[in-house]
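Let us begin with a simple case.
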Amino acid sequence: MPKHKKKGPLSLQGAVKKQLFKSGVELPLKVLHRDPAAAGRGLPAYLHPSSLQQLLHDGAAAEPQAQEQQSSGSSAAGSSALFLQLASGSDCVLHARACADVAPGSIQLDEVQQANLRLCAGEVYKFSVFQHGSSAAGADVAAASSEEEDQQQQQQQQQAEQSMQEAADDSNEEMEDAAAAVDMPFELTDLDCEVRLLHAQQQQQQQAVQVDAVALTRAFCKQCCWRVLAVNEYVVAEIPGLPPLLLRITAANTLTAEEQQEALGYHCFRGLLTPDTTVYMTTALSQQQQQQQQQQPGDVADSAAVTATQQQLLQLSVADANPNSAALQQQQQQQQHDAAAHVTKVTPPVQSRVAAAAAGVQLLNAVSRAAAPPATNVVHVYTNDGEWFPVKKKLLRPCIALTKAVRDSGDSAPTVHVDVDTLTFDRLLIFLEAQALQRQLPGFAIHYLDDLQRAGEQLGLRSLQEYCAHLKGIRQAALGVYSFADVQRANASGKVWLLLDGMVLDVGRWLPEHPGGAAIIPAQSLNCDCSRFFEMYHASRESFLYIAEFYIGELVPEDLPHVPLGGKQPPSSDFLMQLREYTAFRQPMLAQLAQRAPVTHLGAGKARSAAA
């Protein structure tokens, strides 16, 4: 299977902390491989009826089907069906059915389903029932092919909704976010599929396979209608007389182009395919051509150079596939013929020179998206490191420094340059979106707050400045002043408090993520000044950025001489200088300590009373 970068709100990159509409049941199932050559392609996932019962809390809907299969000896999947997702979260959603031939505690998946969910046969994973939570979720059971299926699936729908409600009741905050998500439609208005050959390297033909886009769309919709599809999901489609085709979902929208222009916070990555969904079949190169049409004028020369280079690679790949170069001549003649007939011949991206020549697909009767006019409701924002953000004007309204660009009513989108780096501006947009949609504001890490506050000053975004100050105030109020005895007692109770140049750091929650392992810090660095160890093991100053996350206060100055030194020698002066440059956030606490009388700090009075 081709490899593509994992992306989406629920994938490994950019994963959310909480899932919405999560079922209360998480069932571990062992993945079994299903050979598509023997069972056929495009089939749902199969699991034992007893597993289906456990997922739905009540097996009444699935039990009659299981009894019917067992009595008849049939190996076909029953009519009981539901949608499953990985309990840990997944972009792709499985369409699953009960089958008595599958071993209890197992789920049978083909190679495409395994690739979509990044699963390995023979391993055990936890699954849960998928529920979107909107009225559109009922459509996944409304298209059953018989009245009996309708009744059974509606029962499952009600049971899953009940489970969803029970799980959601555990958190008022989660329910508020879920209510916001319900407002967004779930039925897909349009969908883009990238077409290529399933086994491109096994094909020996020199000419591209001609595929009727209308027939392919019909086969795809027949197979996937009323199923949940996600961006970067693979689907295998078969047309009689042609090799199997691999379709990758490259775009999915639940709003029309006009609605997207007005919507804020619209980030669609999956939805329900319905008979009303418009499906566009494309190939990799045709998608690239569409993207070039939407590029900024300054990027045209670069894109033209890239296109010319790719064309040369494609020609070389054909020559490599046939050393006699007859294929190259035939390819050139075919290109000329296609150009005269206004037919676009497209080849998927170059995986290797030979594979690129073998993986050609020529779409006939394909309908392309209408070219959208340049958007005028956005501002093109360029950051100080050269990145470009097209941001909707209504989202930037709170930024006073950008008022002129926001109010621009010209025929083209205005352009502004801001003295803010890319990552900080991205976080600023997250804040603006949450503020505009009246959602919970993001809890930024403390080491981002200074940069965000400066960005707020640059753009005249007072609400961000005040929010950063608020977060700093909360953090400052939580800081404390500790004696050495306080640190020792905390470590004796099972905590992991470190002393680093007078700072008190609580790293217990981070130990499982420590690149050097969870054991080395408690073994070496407790109840001593660990500055030397920190210098020895952290050649990169990147680790300095994490200190603010663990900082809980300062050690009283009177106890500093009594703290044993970790390591055989003290840290270097150069290290301490750099460390203090990266930990300027501790200055308010140091200033507070300088104004305090020695006898008033925490623990000191107790220690002196005990000594007396």
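The second case is a distinct protein. As before, the sequence precedes its structure tokens.
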Amino acid sequence: MQRSLLDIISTNGYTTLIEGEPGQGKTTISLAACAYKDSCKYISYAEHEESLKRKLSKVEKGKDVKIEVLSAITGEPSKVFSEIISGLNEGKLVIVDSLDAFMYSLKDESEMRSFLQVLYGSSKKKKGTLLFISENVNPASKHVRFICDALVSLGNVEVMGSSIKRTKVIKDRDYAIKAPFYYYTISDRLKIFSPSPTFIKQKFGRLKTFNRPSEGTIDAEIALGYNILYDVDLSVSDLVLKIFRETLAADYLRLGYSVDYWLGPQESEEEVLADIKQLVETKIDRLKTIYVDPQEFEYNSEDYLRHIVTTYGKDNSVDIIHLLLQEDFAVKQPVEYERFVKNATKENLKLKRITILFGYSNQEAFKIRAKYSNVLRKIMIKDGFLFWRSLRPLGNVYLADFKLEEGYVSFEEML
């Protein structure tokens, strides 16, 4: 089972090192570990007690966390060492902020080496945890990398044109690192995200919560013209796309809409119905699965559209369409396909049907559909996480946090 980031950095008997540039959230994540353990001793070379307690209240609102703050700005190394040992003896999480300042207080390298050996042995023998924070401004701090049990690096990574905070677990002594990356945001309060087990286990509970992005609400979809096109990055597997489409269908059903689910080339009608039924746990008589091959109508746009409208056309309903179904039509008869798209768009506006299309940007069907879609969104997988962004109109990047075993999906804005 994947260990949480807070599990890793606060493991009893561990010496942990958190590295990162200023502003990455090292102090905030360390305080989250303090809240996770309910108490800690915080040895600070810079921040005052009031500042740390303010940050702690943002990390864990409403929780009574015991934090003992000791200022080491003018302290001798021997005094700091004594406080560390006493904290470890009491089984506490001891945070030293920062390792760089701590190293500067030592006289020479030999003192530093012997000091680290004593510290390392002390944390092993005690039930507590020693956590160092470092900005890597003191070259001597790098020696701790070799003796620490857990090493975590904080930084930024680009996702769909936006800079997102990410942490990488480089070392976790007693456990295999199954997935090294965790994403987090500290804009309002700290939120740390682990890779979703939904995309591996495929276990669904009843969908209770589906918190949409502000740009992805149903009101926004209606206001922008009912036609929504998803650019599916090639990093998104068929399985992940299927789960995303099924969950979206379940949410519309949950909200009282009728849904026409157009099966993808690799999708089984039996599996799709079983999955969605599990998600809504009610009758799914308002759900239809559709597989209509345009070739059966000899790629004639009028006949194809007439069949769709007369067979499936309903007011105030939702179409969820996989564009691979229409790719042959777009490739073999592009003019006729564009005529179909133009007329289908008008028909959907008249019927007030929300149409959600999923395709790949290199597809001919996608390129034609993009001309008639006021809303363009993108989904991609990076490091095992699903990201979502509105490209037209332009919005922020969201992390799609899928916990379907718990019946929970939330889109978290990554600021």
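The chain has 15 helices and 19 strands. The first strand starts at residue 15 and ends at 19.
Keep these points in mind for the review questions at the end of the chapter.
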